[in-house]
Design brief:
The chain is an alpha/beta fold. The chain has nine helices and seven strands.
Length: 229
Amino acid sequence: MATMADVARSAGVSVATVSHVLNDTRPVLPHTRRAVLDAVEELGYTTNTLARSLVTSRTRSIGLAVSAISNPYFTEILQGVEASALEHGYGLLIADPHEDPAHEREVVRLLHERRVDGMIVAPSAEPRELVSYLTRHRVPAVFLDRIVDVPEGEDAPRFDQVGAEGAEPTTGLVGHLAGLGHRRIGLVAGRPGLSTTRERITGYRHGLAAAGLPFDERLLVHGDSEAAA
């Protein structure tokens, strides 16, 4: 198996230069970079990611924990995350928490033990243990789809959160149906306790009020849009 020293000898440069080219840690002259990359290709050299991670304390990997990966919504997100990660030289480790808080914490722990450099997580309806673990271990993380309450304070880690607006679009949907003459408009709101569920219910009630329609709790059900709901 070819080593970095073999690449350096073949390209006529130092091992340090090879490292700079492969890790993009310092500008290298174009013809030198080309010579190194040609040597890498010719010798079939591959980076020893494990060895590099021991030196840098980074694995250049990101953990993605989302439930129902087969859901088309999350499939598109997965594709986007993977494309961006590869563009920046990162690999992706994917796990499915199955909407179970206990399993979610275990999944996050396993990703952390594999020393991912950060995580993207779509939290469950009860993310307390998840937030506690990430906070305690100060894991860089982004919460996706569902907004959660996070610790506040000067020493608390900062978690970015990315979610879709749910209230206003739901209000618009109700208004659309009401405008077509419908008067009994039901809502399958999703699982209780989720920020997305709360937003949809808020939008639903606002839409009913704007259309002059009464709220009937019998027309509001919780579920995942399955046949029973």
